[in-house]
Write a structure and sequence with these properties.
Blueprint: E1 2-10, H1 15-27, E2 32-35, E3 42-52, H2 56-69, E4 73-84, E5 89-96, H3 100-115, E6 128-136, H4 140-149, E7 156-160, E8 162-171, E9 174-184
Antiparallel strand pairs: 1-3, 1-8, 2-6, 4-5, 4-7, 5-6, 8-9
Helix pairs in contact: 2-3
Length: 187
């Protein structure tokens, strides 16, 4: 049996964050955009993909070791960005202000997983929070203008104090995230 897994930080959006998202959603309601539910916001530390259920304990062991030696990290969320181009956007996301500690943690996790025989995607790590999947934009000029004008430097600060192993269960209604286990970072 296989599970689709990822290691992440759960993001609990502030009221300001939610008001800002609602503003975007209401102004872009005429476009074909699938907005991610607020209870699904997260910062992925490592996407693992399809993993045999028998390997979950190896992942949990690695997470426990890493959490026990890494301190909590203050993160600033802001900066609305796009994957794809501004002419053909695919994903709307929020940037995480540069954090050397976060980049180090990602590398630490990746290296530990590789040592245990996990295949890890070698792409550059871009810390972000996905907000929406863009299917089609009809009014590109309005979309681009809104994105440029509604671009907060910092919309929320969070204290990253625990990492979580999630299972992503795909269905016709979208993905559901089931928490397998969480680990507290050093205080």
């Amino acid at each position: 049996m296989f599970k689709r897994l990822f290691i992440a930080v759960k993001i609990n959006p502030s009221e300001e964050f939610l008001r800002w998202i609602y503003f975007l959603q209401s102004n872009l309601s005429h476009e074909l955009i699938n907005w991610i539910r607020a209870d699904h916001y997260h910062l992925t530390l490592q996407f693992l993909g399809k993993i045999h259920a028998g390997r979950v304990d190896d992942i949990l062991e690695i997470m426990g070791e890493i959490a026990s030696k890494n301190e909590r990290i203050q993160l600033n969320i802001g900066g609305l960005k796009l994957f794809g181009s501004k002419y053909q956007p695919r994903v709307l996301w929020l940037d995480i202000a540069e954090s050397a500690k976060l980049i180090y943690l990602h590398k630490d996790i990746s290296l530990a997983l590789k040592k245990k025989g996990f295949l890890i995607n070698g792409q550059n790590y871009i810390p972000h929070i996905s907000l929406a999947r863009v299917k089609k934009i009809g009014d590109r000029a309005f979309f681009q203008s809104l994105i440029e004008k509604q671009n907060p430097n910092v919309i929320q600060q969070i204290l990253f104090k625990e990492m979580i192993l999630f299972e992503s269960i795909l269905s016709t209604k979208g993905a559901e995230y089931k928490m397998i286990k969480k680990y507290e970072m050093l205080a």
